[in-house]
Write a structure and sequence with these properties.
This protein has 655 residues and is of the alpha+beta class. The chain folds into 5 domains: 92 residues, Alpha-Beta Complex (DNA Primase, Chain A); 139 residues, DNA primase, catalytic core, N-terminal domain (DNA primase DNAg catalytic core, N-terminal domain, Alpha-Beta Complex), CATH 3.90.980; 123 residues, Dna Topoisomerase Vi A Subunit, Chain: A, domain 2, CATH 3.40.1360; 70 residues, no CATH class; 189 residues, no CATH class. Helices cover 50% and strands 9% of the residues. It has 27 helices and 18 strands. It has a 5-stranded mixed β-sheet with strand order 12-11-13-14-15, sandwiched between helices. Helix 19 packs parallel to helix 22, helix 22 runs antiparallel to helix 23 and helix 25 packs antiparallel against helix 26. The longest helix is centred in the last third of the chain and has 31 residues. The protein is elongated, with a radius of gyration of 35 Å. It holds the Pfam family Zn_ribbon_DnaG. One of its GO terms (cellular component) is DNA-directed RNA polymerase complex. GO terms for molecular function: DNA binding; DNA-directed RNA polymerase activity; zinc ion binding. Monomer. Interacts with DnaB.
Length: 655
Amino acid sequence: MALPPSFFDEIRARVSLSDIVGRKVTWDQRKSNPGKGDMWAPCPFHQEKTASFHVDDRKGFYYCFGCHAKGDVIKFVRETDNLEFMDAMEMLAGEAGLTMPARDPMAAKKAEALAGLSDVVEATIKFYRAQLSGGQAAEARAYLDRRGLRPETLDRFEIGYAPTGRTVLLEHLKAKGLPLDLILGSGMVARSDRNDDLYDRFAGRIVFPIRDGRGRAISLGGRAMDPNARAKYLNGPETELFDKGNALYNHGPAREAAGKASALIVAEGYMDVIALTQAGLGHAVAPLGTAITEGQLRLMWRVADEPVIALDGDAAGIRAARRLIDIALPLLVPGKTLRFCLMPEGQDPDDVVKSGGAGAMTALLDTARPMVDLLWERETEGKIFDSPERRAALDAQLRRLLGTITDPSIKSHYGAALREKRQALFGSGSAARSDGGGRRSFGGTPWRSGSQQIVQPSHAARTSFLARADDGPQAETRARECAILTGCLNHPELARKLEAELERMPMLCGDLEQIRDALLYHLLSPLHADATAAYAAMEQRLGFDPISQLTAIRLVSLPPHLQRGADAPLAERALREEIAKQVAVAGILAEVRDAEEDLQGVADEGLTWRLQQANLARDRAMRGSVENDAAEGGEQELSDHLSRLIAEEVWIKKS
């Protein structure tokens, strides 16, 4: 609703800025001059001991010479009470004795009806609050005492007790002259489905008042004292006044506290919020007996940019946190997200505060994790990705989840984060089991003929004669890795098609491995359909032009089928063959490394077979190509070396 400029002028004229500010600060009596409206105090917006916050009451403006905060009374209320604009205007209008500008007749009529319902709830709160000190409430008081709630906490949260009589509240409200239709409409009294009788909804329960962000009484929550009650906790029903999916327990006070703490804690229930507040962490709210809804998420984000979801450390708490991910993903925008802090197993925030105080809870909150971590854990925990089909299923699910994110920037960053986690899980092996934390464990032994597992060479193997940079197999391997990467950059559509093979392919040259990783990170991302933009992002990530770097290594010329404009089927065949050779050579180098390490003791008949098989495998790997060229040069050196090891029977210990 638009407000006329005259209304703003009226607010500023009637409301004293120093009166409003004086509720949040302690004036410095030595520097202040009330007669001139010249007031000084320590700034409420940053921690300081000196009085650098100045209020000019006559002009209606404030300014801090320390943090440079400035504004008028409207801005001050909005920032210190963490209020939306219209909420701040309504509060100031009340201070000034003004009525907000008239709305349309239907809206005014609805507002009047809601005010009537709120009056019923307010009267109920006061009545039940008084009952807590009565004889019937002895058990309730003992329970609250066992939970460690102090008298001032009971007062702060207006906790009360509903007597066990069937219509005690009903009679009280009728005696106050409140209409029966409003009493029923408020949800405080219900009508029986069996016999149409009326009864007090919360009878026999400890009650927790629920107020909206403006402090208006909208409903109650109740905790049963009877262990046989059908529901341990009970919220008021949905009414014209109370929409539980768009309300939060402790909303108003938490909003103000969150403005000072620059944080918001989202706990599971009433007692968690109360315990946290009593421990000094007043910036806590809770959903009202339901899983967190879209409406509640939006309310949280109006209070803080990154609410911390602090759920119980049991299976139900973990499930609730993971369900919330699906609700939050489509709503994410830059700067608005969630972090998650699961309590120790079997504990809730109330338990943590009781055992370790506010410090223990604060330390836990400091470990809160980003939502993308929980998303990844949910999709991978306890699963084995030992086949292309299982990996493809994971990829499809991740793409589906990314597709629910509507903001392009958020989608891009989520895609990048998930790709990093995927690479960390799968690495260069082909069989991985996830424990949910991004760690991986592989089955089987190092590479053998017929095995899927490829082991990259150790540092010792890379620095042996087999890994010399100037010539031999290492030079050939470097040329092959350059050819593969250049071919991928020249044919991005084939790179996307061969993504799994590229990701598993061992890289023996560290500087080229970083180019491969950048390729997977950017060019193959489903978020980068435009290859040109992806290449630019890849270049920025690396800090150099990858094509120039690759083509500068002129150990061999680039195969014609990997050059730009080459026939797509031939280019795919060439890429597949080069990748297959790379995998074979890496495995052979690992095998030779293991064999050389084993050739130190007594004879091992298996060594002969291992070296022979390595030699045969290498020959088979190098025999074919798109052009059917024969292997030569460095290839022959590796073959000769393996043959020499066998002929000289080097595994036999010499005297």
